[in-house]
Amino acid sequence: MSQDEEIGRGTSSGKRKSSGGPRRATKKKSGPEMLSASINNLVSCCREVSDRRTPPSSDVPSISECIRTVRNLPGIERGSDLYFYSVQYMRNQDNRALFADMETPEEKLGLLRYLFDRFP
């Protein structure tokens, strides 16, 4: 038999031969340890997702800053439905970040009117 034939044959059971080195004993985790590890992984994932979605609070204007801006927008009257909708909208940090990203007063007003018309 040639060397190529010997290499191609392998073992009869189809399993690899042991490397001959010592085997490491693996310690099985108990149910509570596995549960604890899973919970820790889940918490880490949630923190990462939250950190990616929410800008640092120092970068987001406060509710009062945003309401001050809303009061100065042309076309929004204090006491109107759009005004009170805008005040409620500013309670959410992500909403304030989006509002602050609008560069002009026209964009800010357009955003608020768009949301008011579509999501009353």
From TrEMBL:
User: At the top level of its lineage, which domain of life is listed?
Assistant: Eukaryota
Give start-end positions of Basic residues composition bias. Answer: 14-29
The UniProt annotation puts the region (Disordered) at 1-36
- Protein name per UniProt: Myb DNA-bind 3 domain-containing protein
Read off the lineage from the record.
Answer: Eukaryota, Viridiplantae, Streptophyta, Embryophyta, Tracheophyta
